[in-house]
């Protein structure tokens, strides 16, 4: 039997949520949510878990990742307990506890440490990048005074460690979500894994579940164009980043900088960059104007993540234009360094930031559908 720990509520609040203890368990949040069904009971049940300190019930939950933070529950809460923000807080808590080093906990709970970590990592990545570009004038100057091989080796070690930690976080998440809370695993029909995989792919491609969040006739987004709705903002960011990552990998494998705008990887990168900047820019705007309650409670990690995406896209287009025009001015070299540092930092901090949900949510959706199919 799980041990009750009321002090856990204070720990959970350090990850960003408001005073969810104001909740008196009326169930209104669960009733208005379009994504709850007979197999899910969020946010109500998970607020109770937080109050009672049932950590494992939270970490073992697939329901955390079923929520898309549409804000309907928050808008209708009679106690202003902000249940939508609470669900986001639990996802941050889960990400931090799947990652084994404790660094993510520090990032989410302590803003000064978060800023210090990302700045230190940026400096290290900057020097590492210069070891890969020894022909640049700034590289030749710096490595007259700094040990080239040591800096290069440190960069490679950091990349290797973050890759291992990403795998460790993923493995911890799968172990938690595989718990059956004392029940025997159900026998699944043949090819159930294939149906679940199709379900996840369909959701990633169409955001069908997310779209149901915006369909209430009396909801804020009902009369808004699809291109401005939260589901499309999320879709643009996700597929824009994936497309850019794929374009970068193709360029690396082909050993070709793709100086022509009509090169396939360059077309993919351009289109993907536009989508990513559009989604990140709109998400930033919504947070600036606090367009709904969902966007009114953004944390520093949210701002840094979105600005990093947008600036990475902007500097990427700058570099693309410079490469096509054959420019090699010092300012262009600086912008290239900024672009690559921010891109590498986004990838390296994947397991240590909210970006991890890009992996965790599809896995949870798959396992959720497996339970339905059983």
How many strands appear in the DSSP assignment? 0
- End-to-end CA span: 26 Å
Radius of gyration: 22 Å
Structural class per helix/strand content? mainly alpha
As an assembly, this protein is: single chain
Could you explain the architecture of this structure?
Helix 8 crosses helix 16 (330-348) and helix 13 (230-254) packs antiparallel against helix 14 (264-289). The model has no long low-confidence stretch (mean pLDDT 83). By secondary structure, the chain is mostly helical. Helices cover 65% and strands 0% of the residues. The two termini are 26 Å apart. It folds into two domains: 8-98, no CATH class; 103-373, no CATH class. It has helices at 8-13, 28-32, 44-52, 55-59, 72-76, 83-98, 103-109, 111-132, 137-142, 148-177, 192-206, 208-212, 230-254, 264-289, 300-325, 330-348, 357-373. It is globular and about 65 Å long.
Describe how the helices and strands are arranged.
Blueprint: H1 8-13, H2 28-32, H3 44-52, H4 55-59, H5 72-76, H6 83-98, H7 103-109, H8 111-132, H9 137-142, H10 148-177, H11 192-206, H12 208-212, H13 230-254, H14 264-289, H15 300-325, H16 330-348, H17 357-373
Keywords:
mainly alpha, 374 residues, 2 domains
Short description, anyone?
With 374 residues, the chain is an all-alpha fold. The protein contains 17 helices and no strands. Helix 6 packs antiparallel against helix 7 and helix 10 packs parallel to helix 17.
